[in-house]
Every structure is written in C-alpha cells, then in structure tokens.
Amino acid sequence: xxxxxxxxxxxxxxxxxxNFFEECKELWKIENCLGEFLGPIVQGIxxxxxxxxxxxxxxxxxxxxxxDAFGPNLPSIFELxxxxxxxxxxxxxxxQMLNQSF
Length: 102
Known about the structure:
Blueprint (H helix, E strand, L loop, with lengths): L6 H17 L7 H17 L2 H14 L3 H4 L3 H15 L6 H7 L1
Helix pairs in contact: 1-3, 2-3, 3-6, 5-6
C-alpha cells in the first residue's frame, strides 16, 4: 500500500504506520525490515501532496523512536529536514509540516 497509485491510500498507510510505531512495544522484533520503510516515507515527504507530506512526516517522527533503524539514516534525515524547512518559505499551508519537522 506504500506504492499505491491513489495518494490518499498512501497517506492513510502512513497514518497506520505512525500509530503502529507509536504503540508497538516490541519494535526490535521487526527492526530488520524497518529500513525498508524509510524510502517510501522520504519519497512521500519529497513528492507527495500536502496531506501525504504531513502523514509521511508524522510517520518519520514516530519512526525516529526506532533507534536501530533510524540511526544509520540520520545524515539523510537531517538533510531532508533542511530541505523541508527551506522549501516552506513561510507559507501558511506548510506551517504544520514545518512544526513537525522540528
């Protein structure tokens, strides 16, 4: 569902992932596949609609709690965070996304 042609489906998938990452107490059991989620999350942030970007960014924030998967990708995540901040340019529509990126 992360590669679905319908953006709303992908956005809802990100929302489900956010809930999962926030509530799962034993993420270590799936840590070997967590890295596979990062690509679609980053793609959603970079190229998705505003809704998809917000959902993907929330997922990325909850993904950050999975230190083993997040740690090796930290440099690219910081770069992405900078891109988000730079692209917002003070536009009101991106205010929530900007706040989430911090």
